[in-house]
Phosphate regulon transcriptional regulatory protein PhoB (SphR)
Amino acid sequence: MLLVDAEPGGQAALAAALAEAGFEVLLVSGALAALEALADGGMAPQMVIASVELPDGDGFSLCGQVRADPRTAHLPVVLLAKREEDFHRDLAGGVGADDYLAQPADARDVVALARLKAGRCTGDASFDANTEQLPLTDVSRALLAGVRSGRVVMSEGQGWFAFRHGLVVDAVFNGERGSLAFRRMLCFGGGDYALVLGPELHKGSFSMDRPYLCETVLQGLERFDALRARGLPLASRLTVDFARLAEVLASLPEDVGEVVRLFDGRRTLRAMLLECPFPEAVSYEASTRLFALGVLVPACLVEERERARCGATVPGFFEPEPSVEAVPVDAEGARAPAPRVDGAVEPFTLVGSTQPPVILDFPKKSPGVPSVAGGADVAVRSDDAGV
């Protein structure tokens, strides 16, 4: 990677992020030094990342000179601007830049673009990637930081999302369309995908910018990932213990029925999260809370109960066994029975063998806020971050 930046601080931070991602970085501080490095008889870099403001020129002129040289014309060039001007986007497109990011650019966005484009030809319109190497959260954040348009298409017809000039404008996933589909793709989409660059001219079904993606949607996904690392397996098949539900029903939020009704012993937890109208982090935390209270139980327990009572073979519903033990703890961290004060059940702590505890509690619906079940796309903007 050839990194052209005159500011030592920004240069060092970006170079460190690229090096940590596995790239070798050549640092230069001006346009002339960059052209000398490119004219050297050694191996050409796989990508050029240049600041727009340089002491001996500018990044736009440098990009034009890179394109004019047949030996370097194929190199991807990403321009970083410390101050965004209205004409910058048009100028970046005019000189053939592959993308333009306004600084302070997030180093993670630059690394994501480098993983997509390094070693490719500048005219390529399609890039293949995998969620193990480049998660959808990283690529979506990077694409919204830039100025290009196109869509990300998941393999095997899982779904896609379209972006245009820094906005996500449409998404389809698991039979849903809109912002709910986009959020669930970030949660559950996996495997190979393709980034296809090109004009997105259709109107779209919603509009989401990068600040909202980072400050609301991705924060909710971070909470979901934390629960997923220490909570119930997504392959769990749970059913309802109605006797226990009757005991604690008075202490539960009124909307808990939207969660409980989806557990029939046959759906996996993943299928339930995809069907539930609430944001994924909220649904996952509510499910774990209900499991800790004993309202949700593994379907295999019901199977054993029915087998003992009827003496018949009952199909198994639960694979695999839960990976954690849900127990209440006292102030010193020791196991203790769940305290009940005036009929209320205190919050539980989910205790794993090696992970720190996660305090679980239900979200409380604010007065005057319409129920999430009334429309997923309407409520997503207020609940995306979870609790």
In short: The chain has three domains: 1-121, 125-206, 228-383.
